[in-house]
Automatic annotation (TrEMBL):
UniProt topology in membrane: Multi-pass membrane protein
Name of the protein: Ligand-gated ion channel family protein
Domain Solute-binding protein family 3/N-terminal: 28-354
Stored PANTHER family: IONOTROPIC GLUTAMATE RECEPTOR
Keywords from the UniProt entry: Glycoprotein, Ion channel, Ion transport, Membrane, Receptor, Signal, Transmembrane, Transmembrane helix, Transport
SUPFAM superfamilies, A to Z: Periplasmic binding protein-like II, Voltage-gated potassium channels
Secretion signal, residue range per the UniProt entry: 1-18
Gene Ontology cellular-component annotations: membrane
Species in which this protein is naturally found: Zunongwangia profunda (strain DSM 18752 / CCTCC AB 206139 / SM-A87) (Wangia profunda)
Gene3D superfamilies hit by this protein: 1.10.287.70, Periplasmic binding protein-like II (3.40.190.10)
A GO term for molecular function: ligand-gated monoatomic ion channel activity
InterPro entries: Ionotropic_Glu_rcpt, Iontro_rcpt_C, Solute-binding_3/MltF_N
Intracellular or extracellular location(s): Membrane
Transmembrane segments: 132-158, 203-224
Length: 354
């Protein structure tokens, strides 16, 4: 009996010590991430870097959490992992949207960005040559020729008999002479080889001289407008204008939500790198995604000479850490995150990555 009691005492002491040891061991938090340059990148040695990683390092200086990163290949997989509690939270640059707030909780925003539009750079010469064959240019030229012909015809009516040496001859020749005089008068070249001599002809000429100043100005503006390089950037003044182009974006992104909200058909891609490749190969017209990520990827791939991000943006984005719904970690991390945003180190990091 004595030995049994001793064994039970040792066994229960072991259990108690084991429980105390488990209680004292700090929890290791799983942080979900996805490769999203320049916010989340990976070094050759396998360690992670980027603006979001550095933001978390600054935040964790006061929290002192044990943690490990768990990487996901797509944004959709990452969001699902956060929502299901597969990871404790994510520090990826997740844009806060109404639909996401129904699925997740978010921290104080740590970065303000915009939804941008990337497109191929267009050749000015090629666009001008293409516009020479546009209906706008052709219609402006035809209108100009029509007005010149009308006044040439009116002068010919008055001059064809009394000024036959200049406007006479066959009907076709006379009309051509009238057309020539009208064109020379309108352009103020003034060769002096032809001039109306009849009273009616001179009245028409006087009217045409004054009208030509107004008409040539408006028609010149019309022709110049039709020749102006029409680029995608000039045609996009709002999100609804995207319906005229072949658009792509990243699946499950806030940009995809925005396009769907406005009924803009778009090709949903796995990554922004895929979209940039399609854009460079002229398989799509525009790529809509987070502006800083687009600019970083284009610069990294040395495609700045062929692809540009428009100054025009579609909306403002707020990047935050994301958590499973009703997570207690939000109240723990938020104060540390707010303190981090006030630090000079964070300001310097922002400048470095812009």
């Amino acid at each position: 009996m004595k030995y049994i009691l001793s064994f039970l005492f040792i066994f229960f002491s072991f259990l108690i010590n084991a429980q105390d040891s488990l209680k004292s061991a700090p929890k290791t938090y799983k942080i979900g991430i996805q490769h999203t340059p320049p916010f989340v990148t990976q070094n050759p040695d396998g360690t992670y870097d980027g603006l979001s990683i550095k933001s978390w390092n600054l935040v964790n200086e006061s929290l002192d959490y044990n943690f490990k990163y768990q990487e996901y290949k797509t944004l959709k997989a990452l969001l699902n992992a956060v929502e299901s509690g597969e990871v404790d939270f994510s520090i990826n640059p997740i844009t806060v949207t109404d639909s996401r707030m129904e699925r997740l909780d978010f921290s104080q925003p740590y970065f303000i960005s915009h939804t941008g539009i990337a497109k191929r750079k267009e050749s000015q010469v090629i666009n001008i040559l293409k516009n020479l064959w546009s209906w706008e240019f052709i219609s402006a030229i035809l209108a100009l020729l029509g007005v010149i012909f009308i006044f040439g015809f009116l002068v010919w009516l008055f001059e064809r008999k009394k000024n036959a040496e200049e406007f006479g001859g066959s009907k076709g020749k006379g009309l051509m002479e009238g057309f020539w005089w009208s064109a020379v008068t309108m352009t103020t070249v003034g060769y002096g080889d032809k001039s109306p001599r009849t009273t009616g002809g001179r009245i028409i000429g006087l009217i045409w001289m004054f009208m030509a100043i107004i008409i040539i100005s408006s028609l010149t503006a019309s022709i110049a407008s039709s020749l102006t390089v029409k680029s995608i950037s000039g045609e996009i003044k709002g999100i609804t204008d995207l319906s005229r182009f072949k658009v792509a974006t990243v699946n499950s992104s806030s940009a995809a939500e925005l396009l769907d909200q406005y009924g803009i058909d778009s090709e949903k891609l796995v990554t922004e790198e895929e979209g940039i490749a399609l854009l460079n190969n002229k398989e799509i017209d525009v790529l809509v995604y987070d502006e800083p990520i687009l600019r970083y990827e284009i610069d990294k791939l040395n495609l700045g000479n062929s692809i540009e991000v428009l100054e025009k943006t579609l909306k403002k984005d707020y990047y935050s850490y994301s958590f499973p719904k009703n997570s207690d970690l939000v109240d723990q991390i938020d104060p540390a995150l707010v303190r981090m945003l006030k630090r000079m180190e964070w300001e310097n990091l922002i400048k470095e990555y812009k």
